[in-house]
Amino acid sequence: MTVQFHDHVLSDAALDQLFNEARSYNGWFDKTVSDEQLHAIWDLMKMAPTSANMQPVRIVWVKSSDAKAKLAECVMEGNRAKVLAAPVTAVIGYDIDFHEELPWLFPHADAKSWFEGDERAREQGAFRNSSLQGAYLMLAARALGLDCGPMSGFNGDAVNAAFFADEPRHRVNFICSVGYGDPASIFERSPRPEFATFNRIA
Ligand SMILES: Cc1cc2nc3c(=O)[nH]c(=O)nc-3n(C[C@H](O)[C@H](O)[C@H](O)COP(=O)(O)O)c2cc1C
């Protein structure tokens, strides 16, 4: 039997696109992001791992002028113009009751029962895994040739009221603009630590 190892390293160009040359953008070219592109981001990010395949992320893609204006009201002054200018900004939330979906998302086990009656464990699982999913979203967008601008400078209660009013069990984690970033809108790259600074191999 031949054992297949996953030893295919991506090209330098791919690694540059995902990491080395990818930046967090503050300004955007006036170029539309299609709904098909948003679907394509989802179709990649949903394949990346979450605990017990819980998939707790709940996303509102803010694309219309009305929705942008509503989101702009909820963010810190410094982020307002960015949200208004971006072709789309994802409100990346999570569902505190994600466990209701586990019977079909994780059919191998009765995972729903692990979380029933333990809201603290659900909050922790939902926040941890929706943060991962937000990161997957950014890498999926970059893989598809788009740029990202993540932001946590907003009033969470206001975002929840504006975008999750019908879903009181959904809460925002962070928001992330997606589009074609204007290189004129970014500072010089901030320093990144060497391996030895924050790592050790035990
Ligand atoms: C979760 C998160 C929240 C952030 N919040 C803000 C924000 O509110 N406003 C802002 O201008 N940048 C924000 N940033 C952008 C970071 O400052 C930026 O990603 C970091 O400095 C690295 O920049 P680079 O990707 O261009 O190297 C945020 C980034 C992340 C990941």
Q: Return the string of H and E elements.
A: HHEHHEHHHEHEH
Please report the total strand number as a whole number: 4
Which class of secondary structure composition applies to the elements? Answer: alpha+beta
User: What's the Cα radius of gyration?
Assistant: 19 Å
Bound molecules: flavin mononucleotide
CATH architecture: 3-Layer(aba) Sandwich
- What shape does the CA trace take? globular
Secondary structure layout plus pairing:
Blueprint: H1 12-20, H2 35-45, E1 57-62, H3 65-72, H4 77-85, E2 88-95, H5 102-105, H6 112-115, H7 119-143, E3 147-151, H8 156-163, E4 170-179, H9 195-198
Helix pairs in contact: 2-7, 3-4
Flavin mononucleotide (FMN) binds next to strand 3.
Structure, explained:
The protein has 202 residues and is an alpha+beta fold. The chain has a single domain, classed as NADH Oxidase (3-Layer(aba) Sandwich), CATH 3.40.109. Helices cover 41% and strands 14% of the residues. The protein has nine helices and four strands, in the order H-H-E-H-H-E-H-H-H-E-H-E-H. Strands 1-2-4-3 form a four-stranded antiparallel β-sheet. Helix 2 (35-45) crosses helix 7 (119-143) and helix 3 (65-72) packs antiparallel against helix 4. The protein starts with 11 loop residues before the first helix and ends with a helix. The mean pLDDT is 97. The structure holds flavin mononucleotide (FMN). Flavin mononucleotide binds at residues 23-24, 26, 79, 150-153, 174, 186, 189-190.
